[in-house]
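tool=predict chain=A
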Amino acid sequence: MSDTTPTRAGMLERLAREAYQVPPGQRLGVRRMTPEDALGVARLFFAVYGASYPFETYYVPERLVEANLRGDVLSAVAFTRLGDVVAHAALYRSSAPFRGLFEAGQATVLPAYRSTFAMPAIGELLFEKVAPSEESIDAVFGEAVTLHVATQRFGAMAGLVETGIEVGLMPAATYAGEGAGSDRISTVLAFRVLRDAPRPLFLPAEYAPELRGLLPALGLPRELSPAAAAAPPGSTTRLSPLFYDEAGVARLNVEATGEDFDAVLREAEGEARRRGCEVVQAFVNLGEAACGAAVAALRARGFFFGGVLPRWFDTDGLLLQRLPALPRLDALLLDAERSREILALVRADLERNPSCRDLLAAAAR
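tool=predict ok
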């Protein structure tokens, strides 16, 4: 990146100053993003989110162009005959350790164009043309907000299968323009596996029934075995933390569980606290037998069930999550019956985990 690349602050100042407006009612086309579209993407995100969107790449055109050139982001846009960008979505590498798993998201539409074909057409381009043709993509997942059901339906139309609920993932301020209240915004996790092979899956005793219930709909060949309750003597934990300071989220990828797991976990939790992360998510590798020890330790520290994560580590993962206060779970807007069933699993684990009693009691007040 050159020294002349604008900063987030500089771009936000420019976008506020120009107050760019896109005329409504124009005919649309859809394409992979070109470098010339990148400024239009920045204008789009500013028009929808103001300065509150937590990922600066989408405000800085040069960063977005470079990410697309590297293949870490594959953007698609809906554009007008004047060249204005009215919608954007992308497949991109995010927090999964497996580089063949791309997230589908950053989906944004100008309010004046939300009743058009823009987002369905972008989805068709990304899921039916881009994803199958890119050798780097083995699987795709999405995090659809529960503030409305539009992005959940978008994922279902693209063939994604619901696998989890991320409770309170995003700050309410990010979606203030979308009518969000004071609660953090929860999301529905959904996956579509394009290329797969048989692989082992170790089921922690605490969540074996939940996992056995969720896996069949994915149609993946898995050899199921019970997970070990303790790590092997002398084994070492491999835990990779990711911190999203603006979103207040810490993600802990537990690739291997060792005898030192408790100490490694406490160190990562301490760093999350220092950085002001409200939400801590643990992604546990179900492809290694000792994962049962990690799950037991996490539950004892107030983590509760989130869902299953196909191909997260190339092998599958389990999401556990913790946050200081629960949003109103009965206020989540869920489109699919399967999502409602997963939310019931989340509630049940909160109720049966003694470490979550204070959380539930506070939510009931």
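Residues 118-133 form the longest helix (16 residues). The longest strand covers residues 161-170.
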